[in-house]
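@channel anyone free to eyeball this complex?
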Amino acid sequence: MLLNQFLFLAAILFCTGVYGVLARRNGVMVLMSVELMLNAVNINLVAFGAYRHDITGQVFALFVIAIAAAEVGVGLALVLMLYRNRRSIDVDDVDLMKG
Amino acid sequence: MLAQMMVAENIAFYLIAAMMVFAAVRVVTARNIVHSALYLVLVLAGVAALYILLAAEFIAISQVLVYIGAIIVLFLFGIMLTRAPMGPMYDTDNEQRAVGAAIAALLLGVMGYSLWRGFRDVQFVDLQVQTTNDVANSVFSTYVLPFEIISVVLLAALIGAIVLARRD
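replying in thread with the prediction:
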């Protein structure tokens, strides 16, 4: 296997996530796209760790998984607050601070 | 024998990769938000399969447990609690779609070019199984301080989420 196979796949996943974050309206859908990007990063970390025979890649991927879990918890709580206050989770409607 | 193994690995990789790319595109284009979440399960399962392919057993198991077991359920809870319509929605995307697609394509072009330049023929040399034992030794010796910090971060985030989401 080539290292590049994994790196290209991760790049495609990351760019799909970027498109999702930019183009989706629904707050929950934006969070899902962020998950795609975090997973792409994890693939890179594990692939480089396997390539260099270094366990550090896996340890860092583990840390990223933990951070992703925290991020989803807080993110969904924020989306829920938004829904309670505005009856909508359209991220384009949250423009109170727009000049 | 070794060459056959490599062919089998490559076939497995391309099958999994095709499934993942299809599912990832569906995650960001599906009209139905529940379908989006279920396609995300496919992507995450594919990532776990790639970890197995890279002989990283512990991280593959964590991926299945944490992502597919917990995070997807959280997403489904989020979808239910915000009373998203169960059927297809027709305003899931905003008017930045074209710009977003252009930026994503540009980013993919830059990343693809630099990856192609940098790692064109780099092969995996004798992939070794990185056992759970090795991960544990590393986490609890070299990386014990980051590990403790990440535990506190996770605790703080979960308490914060509860405080934000409860009704009072």
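from a first look: Residues 131-168 of chain B form one domain.
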